[in-house]
């Protein structure tokens, strides 16, 4: 069954990837060719559209976007897919409810990831976009299957996590949801680092975190299938 909000054709998926890739650059969530994004296609759940390797986002076109099966086979596209392809395909295989993935190298989030710390639920927007505080997953070499393995638990009840010494991994039932999570994580990491200079940062009360999760975060996943995977 198709997930609501996913592109329905390969051409639509390509255009969506280009749209959000350019937004990544415009919001300074990546630099030049860093990071990568992908989306499922509604009626071809074993196929994803993904950004190519080493291609500047300001010149990216729909023809550059690569169509890849979840076994890693390229079915359309003249360019190589991102070197982080195993991260995307393994996450999709593990989580049928995920429809879009965004991996960013934004400055504040990279600083937090380099320190290996977690970000508690300090702001309403973080909980509504990501489901709660953000965990930093253990270090793994980029482009390897271990990255997906180490992030699986950190993403189990959230829409984003930090990758130790790397950046942000955000997921969602759609690419738009994943992008919103990645963008929110950067803003919250920046706010958290600034606030830490003044001392401990107060968190949202636990009962309010659960209310925001239930009322604002979980409904976005309602059309994505198995609620056990995302904790809504």
In CATH, the topology is named: L-fuculose-1-phosphate Aldolase
Based on helices, strands and strand pairing, what is the structural class? Answer: alpha+beta
Overall 3D form: globular
Q: Biggest sheet: strands side by side, in what order?
A: 4-3-2-1-5-8-7-6
For the biggest sheet, the summary is: 8 strands, mixed
What is the second-level CATH architecture?
3-Layer(aba) Sandwich
SSE string, helices as H and strands as E: HEEEEHEHHEHEEHHH
Low-confidence stretches: 226-232
The CATH C-level name is: Alpha Beta
Give the CA-CA distance, first to last residue: 20 Å
What is the CATH superfamily? Class II aldolase/adducin N-terminal domain
**Binned strand content:** 15-25%
Measured as a percent range, the helix fraction is 25-40%
Number of domains: 1
Radius of gyration over alpha carbons?
17 Å
Mean pLDDT: 92
- In total, the number of strands is 8
Number of helices: 8
Describe this structure in words.
This protein has helices at 10-26, 85-94, 107-115, 124-130, 145-155, 175-196, 206-217, 227-230, and strands at residues 36-41, 44-50, 66-69, 74-76, 100-104, 136-137, 160-163, 167-172. The chain starts with 9 loop residues before the first helix and ends with a helix. The chain has a single domain (10-221), classed as Class II aldolase/adducin N-terminal domain (L-fuculose-1-phosphate Aldolase). α1 (10-26) runs parallel beside α6, α4 (124-130) runs antiparallel to α6 (175-196) and α4 crosses α7. It is built from 8 helices and 8 strands; from the N terminus they run αββββαβααβαββααα. The chain has 232 residues and is α+β, with helices and mostly antiparallel strands. The radius of gyration is 17 Å and the shape is globular. Strands 4-3-2-1-5-8-7-6 form an 8-stranded mixed sheet, sandwiched between helices.
């Amino acid at each position: 069954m198709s997930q609501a909000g996913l592109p329905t054709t390969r051409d639509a998926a390509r255009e969506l990837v280009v749209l959000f890739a350019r937004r990544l650059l415009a919001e300074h969530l990546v630099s030049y060719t860093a990071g990568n994004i992908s989306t499922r296609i509604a009626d071809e759940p074993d196929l994803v559209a993904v950004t190519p390797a080493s291609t500047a986002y300001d010149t990216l076109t729909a023809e550059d976007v690569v169509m890849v099966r979840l076994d890693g086979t390229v079915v359309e596209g003249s360019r190589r897919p991102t070197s982080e392809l195993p991260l995307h395909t393994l996450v999709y295989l593990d989580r049928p409810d995920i429809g879009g993935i965004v991996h960013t190298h934004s400055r504040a989030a990279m600083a937090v990831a380099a320190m290996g710390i977690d970000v508690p639920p300090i702001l309403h927007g973080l909980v509504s976009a990501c489901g709660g505080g953000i965990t930093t997953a253990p270090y793994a070499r980029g482009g390897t299957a271990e990255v997906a393995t180490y992030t699986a638990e950190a993403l189990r009840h959230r829409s984003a996590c930090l990758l130790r010494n790397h950046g942000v991994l955000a997921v969602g039932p759609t690419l738009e949801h994943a992008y919103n999570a990645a963008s929110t994580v950067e803003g919250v990491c920046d706010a958290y680092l600034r606030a830490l200079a003044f001392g401990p940062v107060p968190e949202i009360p636990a009962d309010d975190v659960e209310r925001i999760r239930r009322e604002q975060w979980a409904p976005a996943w309602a059309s994505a299938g198995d609620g056990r995977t995302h904790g809504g």
